[in-house]
Write a structure and sequence with these properties.
It comes from Gillisia mitskevichiae. This is HEAT repeat protein. InterPro entries: ARM-type_fold. The chain has helices at about 5-10, 15-25, 30-40, 45-60, 70-75, 80-95, 105-120, 125-140, 140-155, 160-175. It has one domain (about 5-175): Leucine-rich Repeat Variant. The chain is mainly α.
Length: about 180
């Protein structure tokens, strides 16, 4: 079965995404093909594919590392909600991983993307993954700490319980 046929049968269930991730891990060439599809603005399976790549990143992050720059570029302008959630999770996982070293340019691109997501009308998951990523980057980029703290304090009362819980946790760490 080719990648497009597999994507056609993919849904957002955990079982489906896990199966698709396993297939990608069996044939790394499919990841390269999938990334090429994501670069196509008209690609109708991008939400599904990003959700599956998020699952792939949890199983074997290093296999996506060669494509991190492309994923960051996609994240900058991506408009689909489910895709932004997946991209924010993938970015957060990359930043948390201490074995894979992100370079200066990658971090410099990630910071404004995460701040944009944190400040815009995003779902809570995207905001939570963004604040986690920014917190981790704040040890290296000290100005991020002050800006992140100010945003979390300012926006605290206008968000959901989930946002508030994570914001409290991050604010406590920032002190």
């Amino acid at each position: 079965m080719n990648l497009l046929q597999e994507l056609d049968s993919l849904d957002f269930s955990i079982k489906s995404r896990e199966h698709f991730a396993i297939e990608l891990l069996k044939d790394p060439n499919k990841i390269q093909e999938a990334i090429r599809f994501l670069n196509s603005s008209e690609f109708k399976y991008s939400e599904k594919l990003l959700a599956a790549l998020e699952f792939t990143s949890r199983k074997n992050l290093s296999i996506l590392f060669p494509f991190l720059d492309v994923l960051i570029d996609i994240a900058k302008d991506y408009s689909g909600q489910a895709g932004r959630r997946a991209l924010s999770k993938i970015i957060s996982i990359f930043i948390k991983d201490t074995d894979l070293q992100l370079n200066f340019q990658q971090k410099e691109k990630i910071i404004p993307i995460c701040f944009d997501w944190l400040l815009s009308q995003e779902k809570v998951a995207v905001k939570v993954f963004s604040m986690e990523a920014l917190y981790l980057l704040s040890s290296e980029y000290h100005w991020v700490k002050d800006d992140l703290k100010a945003i979390l304090i300012k926006d605290y009362n206008s968000h959901s319980a989930g946002y508030k819980a994570r914001a409290r946790k991050i604010l406590k760490k920032l002190e």
